[in-house]
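User: Predict structure, ligand zinc ion.
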Amino acid sequence: MAVSGSKCKSCKAPAVIDLPRHNANFCAEHLLQLCRRQMAKAIDDYDMFGPDDHILVAVSGGKDSLAIWDMLIEAGYRADGFYVGLGIGEYSEESGQYVRAFAEQRGLTLLTVDLRDEYGYDIPTAARATKRVPCSSCGMSKRHLFDKAAKDGGYDVVVTGHNLDDEAAVLLGNVLHWDVNYLARQLPVLEARNGFPRKAKPLVRLTERETAAWCLIRGIDYLVEECPIAAGNRHLHHKDILNAIEQESPSTKAAFYLNFIENMSPLLAETTAAAQGELHHCERCGAPTTGEVCAFCRLVATAGAHEPVPVELVLGKRGRR
Ligand code: FES
Ligand code: ZN
Ligand code: ZN
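Assistant: Predicted complex:
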């Protein structure tokens, strides 16, 4: 990570990272300070949560979710972790180990749910049973379980580790399709409504390179490997496109996403309200839904009835990059 011969913009010590979008290099301590400042600004600007709120951090074992949990604890927030075992072969086993080790070493509270043990299915089986891409049942299962864990545990807000690269890539995809409902859901904070908890993304002002640097400097071990069945996912392609633009023209990525938030939030707030439609309780689990049975309970029924599918069978071309 060292940047040979260059000096930190703030203290002139040898720099460990160059950040073209800030037109500067930083030493380890000042990189940490930059991350702290950017997180605090996101929390403040978007009114995400306050010092008394009880936070549930959705952790995957990757760099972003462990970085945000660490940053929140370091800043004095009350934050517990929540991990969902997705049953994606070795990837899930290893990710669970990283999360547990992180929590144990720091004496933090970690809540866990295992899809196979508690709901009778895993993501490879759900993908095969629904004949859809794995990320679809994965995202839906996680959203439902985050909401449920927050409600059951009395948490004020669910925090996820989405960073600037993630959000800009998703934004590009949504803009290419002008998908207004998805655009409305991309705001960095979604208020609690109709039985759903508040959700916040305090890392939206930091890139994945910066969160990786945070982990490295702070000695956080995380799972480097990406999910094997998400490879080929279109967001990854959009990330590559944005990185190519960023290389030519540093800070475009941040302007693309952050100016979207600033200029579009007021307009999209109405769309979010309108998109809610009429919600009532799922007759099986009680979660808010537009139908009689929520999408999660329907997935549990479909995937739970399917014989278990080993992860290798859904890898296909996706796993070979
Ligand atoms: Fe959800 Fe890979 S982590 S499909
Ligand atoms: Zn410095
Ligand atoms: Zn339900």
